[in-house]
Amino acid sequence: MPAGRIIYTVTPLNAEPASLTDAPCTPVGRLFLRTHGTVPALEVATYRLRVTAPGHSQELTLTQLAALPFVEVTALLQCAGNRREELMAISPFPGEIPWGVRAAGNVRWGGYRLRDVLALVGVTANPDPDPDPNPDPDRAGWHVAFLGADEVYVGGQPVGFGGSVPLERALHPDTLLATHMNGEPLPPEHGYPVRGMVPGYYGARCVKWLAHISVQPQPSDNYYQQVAYRLHRPDSAAAPMLGPMPPTCAIDTVGRSGPAVHATGYAFGGEQTVAALEISLDEGHTWHSARLQPPAGPWGWSLWDITLPVPPGATSLIARTRGPQGEQLQPAALTATWNRQGYANNAWHRVSLPADPA
Hints:
This protein has 358 residues and is mostly beta strands. The protein is 6% helix and 33% strand. It folds into two domains: 5-226, Oxidoreductase, molybdopterin-binding domain (Sulfite Oxidase, Chain A, domain 2, Alpha-Beta Complex); 248-352, Sandwich (Immunoglobulin-like), CATH 2.60.40. Strand 15 and strand 16 (260-268) form a beta hairpin. The radius of gyration is 21 Å and the shape is globular. The two termini are 36 Å apart.
């Protein structure tokens, strides 16, 4: 385990780095680790990926995958529980990991387009477009389900780890079966030899150690699709499955020198565009624009930094994002994002202002 990590559990291994935003691409050794069960020891010579669709089934070796065009996509990988620690201040989540803001990282993924793999079993388009103008997002249309080779148990029963995404997203040219991270083969803890990478979706849908891919007319029936990773909000009886990641931002580091404070962090727009990152030192009465770097492609994060004078009485920093028309992209209050398991927290981010070391 590299130094500088916050380790939450050893078996299974779950950890996040102590700092994050000093490079546009996160070094693999500093990327967070989210594990639900074993880290399987898969061998190149014996590895097989089973791909099925109605009327079709095929097992692929790594050599067969390598015959497809190799592509790279830079994309944010984020745990659905990122920033759960803030929601725990409202109400605890027994048994859940108290992730800070670093269960996320920006990676240059290399591998093979999932749509090229699905074409090998005859799937090149949605075979049954849903005619309903207001479809149930949990059920509508066809889905691509993923299942990993790791051994995962819930309540003493083996369930494996799986999940699914709509077929349209699976056919997107940037959706990959990833074999490389930042130009190097996947390490075992990150899914060697093959993992899913669905840019714009949480890591729970980017299944590691892929063993089976299924094209089917309904979402995965895996526990982690049907039971876990749902948004149980107190004001709604519905509990939708996790979908695309919403816009978010976070303050990663804060340093103070005399009358000035310097802060760094990241912002991510998801399917929207982050045009500005703003910081307030007076509880939102006044906002200051940070220096915002352009994202590395449409699926990557944007790093930002800012240095500001500290007004008298200031006790905290607040970060938020804005879109191209000045629109706010995130809810202001944590209570607007609170849900029973602490997923998908994308409220404005607040941290305490450190004391003047002088």
